[in-house]
Amino acid sequence: MSKIGLLTSGGDAPGMNAAIRAVVRKGIYSGYEIIGIQRGYAGLLSGNQFINLEIGSVADIIHRGGTVLLTARAPELLQDENQDKAAEILKSKGMDKLIVIGGEGSFRGALTLQERGIKVIGIPGTIDNDICGTDKTIGFDTAVNTILDAINRLRDTATSHERIFLLEVMGRHNGFLALTAGLAGGAESILLPEIEYDINDVCKRLMHGIKRRKAHSIILVAEGAGDVFKIKEDISSQVKHEIRVTVLGHIQRGGAPSAVDRLLGSRMGAMAIDLLHQGKSGLFTAAKGEEIVALPLEVCFKGTKSFPDNLYQLALVLAK
Ligand code: F6P
Fold it and tell me: Residues 256-285: pLDDT tens digits?
């Protein structure tokens, strides 16, 4: 029976388990043996972290955050000799096919294995939603909802004390999470790595809100937009109002996946099997509107995902 390797890599994301479940169940249904590789590429390189996944192995996981296969960041796969080694290990175990669930770095690793004769399919799983070519990545919707929940809670206490809150959310290199949650949560200002901001403008907006008796203000700060504590100091020097900082951190990465992420994981996992079954590889599954399509892995390295400036402008207008 033909064997397909399956691993999750990089930061975990809610909905990865739904994708694992779909790969295993659709894979077995299609006549394959599915081998789970634990701890991502690091586990693959160790050569001894393989588990046979049966129909029952993925029972009771669709609603759980994280990844039952465990994950890791594996910078060692950047080295040529380790790429050769990883491909050799897969071949020696009879796996000439591999499905990788992860972000852009994980896809780069996948491509190096494709170039070494392994048939690879990527499934985009990261809360950052920063993979070029797909409208959505698995985990993004859940993380946005987690941030919205935090905003709602902060609003209660912010209103009671008439305070300003800075909420730092994830996004080292991009502000998709901050922008989407900020717009949906009605944040007064959203600070992103993509948009240069002037602290004087941020303060003017705050003062404008205070003058028209806004009970509180929430400012969303993507982690890549600058040091949130320094931003607090800069605002304090101009706005004489109490300010508090909340860093949401890894809370954004956990929790039960939303319906959107379960569906995305299930559909993409099943499609990854279909693509391999059709003899296709070197592709990743991508959400385009309501459809899931297959795109060459190279697409996600060719450009950066375009920033939705229209949403940013809308957020500015609506938060006046
Ligand atoms: O998963 C992506 C991401 O959440 C980034 O937004 C964040 O900066 C980073 O991972 C944190 O990674 P780690 O878990 O390695 O600290």
Answer: 999 999 999 999 999 999 999 999 999 999
Q: pTM of this prediction?
A: 0.97
274 is annotated as an active-site residue: no
In CATH, 140-253 is 3.40.50.300:
no
Pick the catalytic residue: 60, 80, 128, 274? 128
Portions of the chain given CATH number 3.40.50.450: 3-139+257-301
Identify the residue whose C-alpha is closest to ligand 1 atom 1.
11
Residue 320: pLDDT band (50, 70, 90) is: confident
Delimiting residues of CATH 3.40.50.460 domain(s) in the chain: 140-253
From the alpha carbon of 224, which atom of ligand 1 is closest? 8
**Residue ranges of E strands in the chain:** 3-8, 33-37, 50-53, 95-102, 119-124, 164-169, 189-191, 217-222, 243-247, 283-288, 291-296
| Measured distance CA(9)–CA(168) in Å, rounded | 25
Yes or no: domain 3-139+257-301 corresponds to CATH 3.30.1360.10 = no
Q: Mean pLDDT of all residues in the chain?
A: 96
- Distance from CA of residue 162 to its chain's centroid? 33
